[in-house]
Amino acid sequence: MTAITVDGLTKYYGDFAAVDGISFEVPDGQVVAVLGPNGAGKTTTLEILEGFAEATSGQVQVLGANPRRGGRAWRSRIGLVLQSTSLETEPTIAELLTLFARLYPNPRPIEEVLDLIDLTVEAKVRVGTLSGGQQRRVDLGLAMIGNPDLLFLDEPTTGLDPEARRRCWATIERLNGSGTTILLTTHYLDEADKLADRVLVLSAGRLVADMTPAAMRASSGVSLVRLPVPPGIALPPSLACHVIGQELAFQTDQVVPVLTELISWADRSGVGLTGLEVGPPSLEDVYLSITRKDAVHV
Ligand code: ATP
After folding, report:
1. CATH number for the domain including 198?
2. 220 C-alpha to center of ligand 1: Å?
3. Does residue 113 sit in the same domain as residue 234?
4. What total of structural domains would you count in the chain?
5. Are residues 163 and 238 in the same domain?
6. Nearest residue to 253 via CA among 227, 278, 273
7. Protein residue with least CA distance to atom 26, ligand 1
8. What spacing in Å lies between the alpha carbon of 114 and ligand 1's midpoint?
9. If you measure from the C-alpha of residue 111 to the centroid of ligand 1, how many angstroms do you get, rounded to a whole number?
10. Which atom of ligand 1 is nearest to the CA of 202?
11. Residue at which a domain ends, from 169, 187, 212
């Protein structure tokens, strides 16, 4: 089954196209990450899929319904973590989850949610005294309390420290493991790499990539060549222009000539090649090259 179908979706604000004719599908059970620079149209797309905003044109089906006409039963099958939320501060975590559970026909047991968000020990702590990372996990808990088939997460880990982000990732992975389809936006490429089966890249309202993280990395056709440069070493101009920080860095589809030049320079200068690395680019490198290339064509 297909959880989400988007066909030729556009959204205009006045005569500005925030979303400009995008099409994609999300099969049941997938985790799909929507990436893109600020203003690319990610949140607008999510708002349309969630039923909060009206499309200007195009077709959108979410769990078999038009999100603008999905009724109570449809809404109870969907969980949301918005970009920013303000939680009630007075109740404890368990009290808040219990309150929200009453709104749904088929809620998850509170203990199961506490376990999924890794806050069992803190269940009786007041929400207002929790850290930012713990509060974000309470957001996730509220989004999953109704036992949703589909979860929308808008930048779920923005502002969290690395440990808190990893805990959020673990929760998202466990949720997906229990069958929930997940569409998330993120500015963290490592997050997309870790969680997503597929990555959609939006740029200026258009869909410029739709592929697995591995395919995206391979799509660039380039390799990274890196070599730490000892301080005080003179470099010929052809190499000096590739210095970034303390290292020489090349993103190239011509690895052999680059290595040949490096080896010949190292031989002439008596520099060792300790630390030389040749490998695929990171997802972030490819993402940046896709979005920069696209920006040039806009
Ligand atoms: P970010 O990464 O910063 O959250 P985004 O990809 O989620 O960005 P959107 O919030 O979808 O981007 O915004 C897309 C474009 O639409 C932006 O240029 C934004 O200014 C514009 N926009 C969004 N909402 C409105 C609105 N209500 N009225 C007018 N323009 C809007």
Report:
1. 3.40.50.300
2. 28
3. no
4. 2
5. no
6. 278
7. 13
8. 34
9. 37
10. 6
11. 212
| CB neighbour class for 183 (10 Å; exposed up to 12, middle 13-18, buried from 19) | buried
Nearest-CA residue for ligand 1 atom 18 is 39
CA angle centred on 284, ends 278 and 290, rounded to 5°: 105
What pLDDT, in 10s, does the model give residues 159-170?
888 888 898 899
Q: Which of 60, 51, 53, 63 is nearest to 27 (CA)?
A: 63
Same domain, 46 and 85: yes
Q: What is the pLDDT of residues 236-295, one digit of tens each?
A: 888 889 988 889 999 888 999 999 999 999 999 888 899 999 988 888 888 988 887 765
Quote the longest CA-to-CA distance of the chain. 75
Give the confidence band of 230 by pLDDT, cuts at 50, 70, 90.
confident
Q: 260: domain range? A: 221-279
- Over residues 105-124, the mean pLDDT reads 93
Kindly list the protein residues whose Cβ atom lies closer than 6 A to any atom of ligand 1.
13, 18, 36, 38-44
Residue 94: inside a domain: yes
pLDDT of residue 68: 94
Give nearest CA residue, ligand 1 atom 21.
Answer: 18
pLDDT tens, position by position, 94-114: 999 999 999 998 899 999 999
Q: Both 200 and 264 in a single domain?
A: no
pLDDT at 163: 86
Give a yes or no: residue 61 inside a domain: yes
> Hey, which of 22, 43, 49, 200 would you mutate to test ligand 1's pocket, going by the most ligand atoms within 8 Å of its Cβ?
43
CB-based contact 182:171 (threshold 8 Å): no
Q: Which atom of ligand 1 is nearest to the CA of 11?
A: 16
Contact between residue 32 and residue 197 where contact means Cβ atoms under 8 Å apart: yes
* Cα 217 to averaged position of ligand 1 atoms, centre (Å): 27
Domain end residue (candidates: 162, 182, 212): 212
In a domain, 150, yes or no: yes
pLDDT tens across 26-81, in order? Answer: 999 999 999 999 999 999 999 999 999 999 999 999 999 999 998 889 999 999 99
